[in-house]
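Postdoc handover notes: sequence design on the structure in folder B. Input tokens:
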């Protein structure tokens, strides 16, 4: 194995790849975002803020219309139970 030229192992001359962390947000954080951004419409565009996924941890304080790339079933259920929807 040590002298095998076709071995796919670690190359000591290259640094390991740095993976970019995914941006996600919990539904419990929507209230703090909406207080400063949404105004009277209740629409939040998380995709333009760089958020990739909406997770279902926390409680939703009001009916929000949220635009996001992907979301969990639990997040969708909580937002719809509060009277909002995911666009």
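Designed sequence:
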């Amino acid at each position: 194995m040590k002298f095998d030229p076709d071995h796919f192992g670690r190359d000591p001359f290259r640094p390991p790849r740095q993976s970019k962390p995914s941006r996600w947000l919990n539904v419990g954080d929507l209230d703090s975002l909406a207080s400063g951004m949404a105004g009277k419409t209740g629409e939040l565009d998380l995709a333009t803020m760089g958020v990739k996924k909406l997770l279902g941890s926390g409680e939703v304080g009001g009916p929000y219309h949220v635009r996001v790339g992907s979301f969990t079933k639990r997040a969708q259920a909580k937002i719809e139970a509060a009277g909002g929807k995911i666009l």
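Context for whoever picks this up: The two ends are 53 Å apart (CA to CA). Don't rerun without checking with the PI first.
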